[in-house]
Input
Amino acid sequence: MSATPPSGTPSTPVDGLRLAIGTLSVFPVRPGVVDRRAGGVAMTIAPFVGALIGTVGAAVPAVAPWLGVGPLLASALAVAVPALLTRGLHLDGLADLADGLGSGRPAERALDIMKQSDIGPFGVVTLVLTLLVQVAALSEVTAAGAGPAALITACATGRLALTWACRTGVPSARPGGLGTMVAGTVRRGPALAVTALVFLGTAPLALTYVIGAGSGLVPGVLGPPLAVLAGLSAAWALRRRAVRRLGGITGDVLGALVEIATATALVVYAVTVGSP
Output
């Protein structure tokens, strides 16, 4: 990640877009000016990067029936796509946060544990269970014909959790790193506006499911927004716990929020519109 040029040139919204794509995905984007202003833009538009990643992954359950691939295998492959497109960054953050919180150590020592390159037992168990939940939930929804819509919604929700975790007033747990750059950079107005756009974006996805899969109108329409709400609620609870325990957010905390919000959204999607 490059620093702000010596000239002190402030970043532009385009720099924030570059930062969002370059940080949240493997898509090759040349870095621009990197400062807290760019960080705020990046975290504000993060859900759109998530929707893009989800769209790429959604191609798997979309073509699976034509290739004779069952819902379970298709879902496992689909969940692997976002992991590959993010270099496993969010999954690594989830494991590190689990180790830090699970250690029971004071904040400073817990943060040191999170910085270590290895993964402890808490991290391994949390990582495996979260991936199993994501695959199982997506398999349920895929069997009902709504796999692509569910994955796009869940990936966007996961990144929307970043927007709210970086709201003004949320501190960074330590100096340096991604947490310091983005903590407290997103204002309430933009966060609400992006959230509204995410909810509006679920409407065509819900309609596609209702028409294509013959779902009942109520579960078909309410499934996506309920999934978004549930994902954000789960991320809020985890963020609150992390801030109380560690003193603020870090890059690992943000990664964990993405995965927890994604998993929760998929579970609620499965409950509301999944197969009987």
Observations:
- The mean pLDDT is 87.
